[in-house]
Design brief:
elongated; 13 helices; single chain; 3-stranded antiparallel β-sheet; 2 domains; mainly alpha
């Protein structure tokens, strides 16, 4: 009987110690989360200060908050808070760029300036500033070029995008910037030089439709792509590739049928114009590009 009581005593004592240990561990975890959260808030505040100063010192003029909201809605269909609230607001799953409502700018890096694992301990504000001002990593130039273009329409940024074709393609095709015809034309030229027109095959939805779904399909960009291609059978290959990529993805794209159909009709109008201007290469209806592509779509979707 005494032995049974002793065993019960030991078991209850072990259980009590276990519960106390879990409680202490829980408290430490909560304290750790609080400290980390506090540190992140401080870093975001310092990063906003560093980037805002760098932008203003180098010609970036922050818009009023209302105008900034309007641009974010135009480019990304992104609805900001009525008043600045967020330092790191995602603009969508296709990019790691974020919106800083307080600074009224786009941050164009995946990691913040305080992410410096090579430094022992927590990086200081001076470390973050050095990271930005280090010309080798290109963070500052990219940050400045994107923001001065997207929010200031500053044409002095064109040289940056022409030197960096991948960013020219990105800002026009992925971020829906259409306010500069020279940049649009150059981004189309760059995109046609990529292997097998992968920009059109891999980014069909981005090329054909706006991020802000209420804006529908990108009529102007489609026209510019067509005009750059419609000279010969060979130069039409990128446009053919775009239409074929649309055919492959047509049923999977999550848009109302009438929106997808309107986009298709516009593509077909371009193809019909091409057929009319190249009658010498057409013997029968099967030779017409418009007929070939329309047949594909009708075979996939009778609606």
């Amino acid at each position: 009987m005494k032995m049974n009581r002793y065993i019960l005593f030991c078991l209850s004592h072990i259980l009590l110690l276990s519960c106390q240990g879990q409680s202490k561990s829980s408290n430490v975890s909560k304290d750790s989360i609080y400290v980390n959260s506090k540190m992140m808030d401080q870093q975001e505040l310092m990063q906003t200060s560093i980037l805002s100063k760098y932008g203003k010192d180098n010609g970036y003029n922050p818009l009023s908050y209302q105008d900034f909201q309007n641009r974010c809605m135009e480019y990304w269909g992104l609805s900001l808070h009525k008043e600045p609230k967020d330092y790191v607001l995602s603009i969508g799953g296709y990019t790691e760029y974020t919106i800083n409502e307080w600074g009224r700018f786009l941050y164009t890096e995946a990691e913040n300036l305080f992410y410096q694992p090579e430094i022992d301990g927590e990086p200081t504000k001076e470390d973050a500033r050095k990271m930005l001002y280090d010309k080798e990593n290109g963070i500052a130039d990219k940050f400045l070029a994107y923001n001065k273009l997207l929010f200031n329409d500053n044409i002095t940024t064109l040289s940056f995008f022409i030197r960096n074709p991948e960013y020219a393609i990105d800002v026009v095709f992925n971020h829906d910037y259409e306010r500069n015809k020279i940049l649009t034309a150059r981004s189309i030229d760059f995109s046609k030089k990529t292997t097998d027109y992968s920009v059109y095959r891999d980014n069909t939805e981005k090329v054909l439709f706006y991020n802000n779904r209420k804006r529908g399909f990108r009529r102007n960009l489609i026209n510019e792509i067509y005009l750059s291609c419609n000279k010969t059978q060979e130069t039409m290959a990128p446009f053919d590739d775009l239409v074929y990529a649309y055919f492959k993805q047509f049923k999977q794209l999550n848009y109302p049928q009438d929106v997808k159909d309107k986009c298709l009709v516009h593509l077909l109008k371009c193809l019909i114009e091409y057929d009319r201007n190249h009658k010498d290469a057409i013997i029968g209806i099967e030779d017409e590009k418009s007929y070939q592509h329309l047949s594909n779509f009708m075979s996939k979707d009778k609606h």
